Amino acid sequence: MLPSADPSALMRIKSLQLRAKAVVEGFYNGLHRSPYHGYSVEFNEYRPYTVGDDLRALDWKLFARSDRYYIKKFEDETTRRCYLVVDQSRSMAFGSLDYTKLEYAQTLAATLAYYLSNQRDSVGLMTFDETIGEFLSARNRPGHLRSMLVALSRPVAGKGTDIDTPLRQIAALVSRRGLIVLISDMLSPIETLQTNLAYLRSRGHEVMILRVLDPGELELGLKSPGMIVDMESGKEIYLDPDVARTSYREKFAKHQSQLKTICSSLGVEIFDMMTDAPIEQALFHVISVQKRRSAGANRAGMIAGGSSARMASS
Fold first, then answer.
1. Same domain, 54 and 153
2. What burial class does residue 261 get, using C-beta atoms within 10 Å of its C-beta: 0-12 exposed, 13-18 middle, 19+ buried?
3. Domain limits at 161?
4. Residue 243 lies in a domain
5. One matching Pfam family, short form (predicted)?
6. Beta-carbon contacts of residue 218 (< 8 Å; ≥ 6 apart)
7. Which of 92, 99, 184, 301 is a plausible cystine mate for 103, CB 3.0–4.6 Å?
């Protein structure tokens, strides 16, 4: 495993940008000190050689292995687009640690934005609660990262959570294929989630869900009966933890199972991010997805290139 920073220590850094920088730099340093040494965070892509291409871009090592000519794409050809869709509803203000789920999610999104910007990828942002909050188109230019960090730093404003609206909006606004990363506790009804995720996938987007959970949500932490307040509705509810604990566990497990089933059926990656877990884990998840995307694109290009070459020679 990679060395990892303590999230509690990380959250004591007031600047969101400094937090993100600390995670990314720790991630890179960890790669060099771990069994993952040599694991590439660059994702080269190839396409078949065509007449007129610059011969200097030929990959001779790949030619030696495949006996076919391939061009290594330049950096500007491999720029990716990623949208971070961040839940800022009232339920995200919960926290049994020294910080809330929202603070963790904001740091998570800032870290991904910082990392992807350093990779010269185009990054966009959408925040939401029961309505859309901020929307910044995916770009890679000076000042854009700062604009995203400012948008992420804004406090919780809304109450409820509406997962469907941001997914519909992203699908409508983003025409070019890319990676959509949904960062949310997913504590909302999921009846129409499958439809909206399926629509994003049908438009060629890769979709990843980083489900942010507080350790205190896995079990009811109340010691004795009392009044509690629903963070989203503001409604006061009398709760006896001994009576409610079994039902809570069953409903929590059912909701989790439904999420996993929906995501599995659609090829959507979903990872649980506990707020006491190192944020670097999210970078590995994103890199793994990007690596698979690149491998799939490379294989498709090589197959197409090989077929074209055979057709041309026949």
1. no
2. exposed
3. 81-289
4. yes
5. DUF58
6. 252
7. 99
- The reply to whether 111 and 171 lie within a common domain is yes
Would you write out the chain's pLDDT as a tens digit for each of its 314 residues? 344 568 999 999 999 999 999 999 888 776 645 444 343 444 345 567 766 667 777 778 777 877 777 766 544 445 689 999 999 988 899 999 999 999 999 999 999 999 999 888 999 999 998 889 999 999 999 899 999 999 999 877 666 778 888 999 999 999 889 999 999 999 888 888 999 999 999 999 999 999 999 998 887 767 777 777 766 667 788 777 777 888 888 999 999 999 999 999 999 999 999 999 999 989 888 887 767 766 655 554 545 455 444 444 44
Cβ(6)–Cβ(34) below 8 Å: no
Which domain CATH number covers 141? 3.40.50.410
Q: List residues bridging with 79 in a β-sheet.
A: none
Q: Please, are residues 146 and 21 in contact by the beta-carbon 8 Å criterion?
A: no
Residue 252 dihedral angles phi and psi, to the nearest 5°: -65, -45
Number of domains observed in the structure of the chain: 2
Strands 236-239 and 226-229: antiparallel
